[in-house]
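Course exercise 7: structure representation. Students receive a sequence record and must write out the corresponding structure in token form. The form below is the worked example handed out in class, using ADP,ATP carrier protein (244 residues). Read each field label carefully; the graders check that inputs and outputs are placed in the correct fields and that the protein name is recorded exactly as given.

STUDENT ID: A-19
EXERCISE PROTEIN: ADP,ATP carrier protein
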Amino acid sequence: AIMSIVRSVKDMPFLLYHLALVQVLVWVGNTAWNNYGAQWFANVVFEGDQHAPEGSPQRIAYGHGVAAFSTGGQFKSGLQLISSLTLMAILLKTTIRPRLVYAPCIFLGGAADFLAAFAVGTSGVFAIVCMAVSTMPETGSFAIPFGLVAILNKHAEEEGKQVSTALQMALLNCCITVGQQICTVSLAALEASLPLETALMWVMILAGIAHTLAGFGALSLNDKPPAPTIEDERAFEQQPSTEC
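STUDENT ANSWER:
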């Protein structure tokens, strides 16, 4: 069983490893919002302090930041639902290649990251907008990479290689965890030498860089449909003609 897994990993096409790298980078950026968005709202945007005395301006500002984060989460969920349905419709009803759908989603997330780091300042409304838009890479990462696994399997079958859909899905899921851990470790390292507010700003910059690299990586994915096999051509030739 172990040797079978080793052979499956060895025979995986390059496209899967390319896609895995993109997935890691996407989730480095996604984790900045998912894990540290509340702290960014409360400590950076609203300049609050959880440990300030009860009733102090900083403690009140912290509460306002948490409330704004909650509002942003609601808008983010709504946009995620709409964008998920839109992506499904585009992929099913049009001939647009998946990479040309995935890359813009990632770039939108990168734009939200950089705006959060350099432009939001203390604007709660602007921060909510950025948080809502930050859902686009996450939505794309759930909808598109796993769908491309079908294309990978078709390529592998044509080359006579062993196909393991479950193993490929597991690899993509592991990439999510790797991206999350990179972001978490990065923030911990930054906090060791920087104040929390500054460290959070640098994490947003890291997220923007990761999403930008992932966007260009997605653009260069080789997601062309597999070429017709000899068997497919023969089957087509053997179809009865409908011409009179």
